[in-house]
Amino acid sequence: MIGAGLYVHVPFCLQRCPYCAFNAVAGHQEFIPDYVESVIAEIGQRGTRLTRRPVVSVYFGGGTPSLLAPAQVEAILHAARRSPGIRDAAEITLEANPGTVDVARLRAYRLAGVNRLSLGVQSLDDRVLRWLGRAHSAAEGIAACTAARSAGFRNLNVDLMFGIPATPAGTWEDALQRVLMLHPEHISTYALTLEEGTALAARASAQRDRGPDEEEDAAAYQQARHTLQQAGYRHYEVSNFALTGRECRHNWSCWHGAEYLGVGAGAHSYLRGVRCWNHARLEDYLAAVQAGDEVCAGQEIIDVDTSRRERVWMQLRTDTGVALGRTERQSLQASPRFAVLREAGFLTWYEERLCLGTPGWAVADSLGVEVDAILEDSRHRKPRITA
To answer: Which CATH topology does 5-254 take?
Structure first.
């Protein structure tokens, strides 16, 4: 499942959702043809930088990648097959928003090479969708899932969001049950968060809207875990549930330290121990590619400490946990802070792997920070000198 990946960022959206902090632009679809040509050129320029080729997964994220015409997606994949190369059995995912696709368009994406579809349904309640600023209705969300099946997709993800303020009791459970009736192979659940710089954060700051409630979020999360696991979905990562064999290969590889090349405005790459990121502004990205200049706006060398920190944080979020070396295990076992977490059931050992206990899933990120802090303290603790 682990191998090099290619990420293609598509920043275009019909409108900007008030909670969105991704690198996206509303409108400006007139730039799409030039953007696609620039992405193709960037792939040609940087495809050989992956040390492991060909890639085992391609992911079109956004933004709204389904605003690209199927022929444009096909052209990008054709460029990627030349370099860095794409394995025949590669997972190729396209994110799509309901309301931007129909059976004919989805069938054309399938013919272009896309074999996994991720639908940003978010909610099946029209009141919630309006509050979130989504452009589609609940009926369009269901129709998009049905259209995906008619188009031949057998690997479908549905995104759902919980923790929406002032929603009626039972809304979240109803959404889970209705999505289960659509039988997607994969379901991603995310809590609404107030990201700095978003319209939603500004509204909450001005007290025009109540922000998410932590207790309600925790209850909704536990409800999702119970409902989806009872329905046969493996809770393989904090936010992700999948039927057997339908885990997202692209994300799994990234969580486990695989190389990936990111192309497009604002895309990040991880190559040869260095993380770099492209120019985020659409105009800057296009100008750099067209001039033949370096598209990366900055980079970070991933040193030993950073590598450990990210390994612990990302892999602890998965159901297989994080493999630790003998010295790391000994450091944790000797820590009173760690003992408290184990006794409370937040963390558990499975052979040489540290895993989340049942109550730990809801606070995985905090646990990752604490585990890393314990390991860091043990590295810098001076040995005791005895007579």
So the answer is: TIM Barrel (3.20.20)
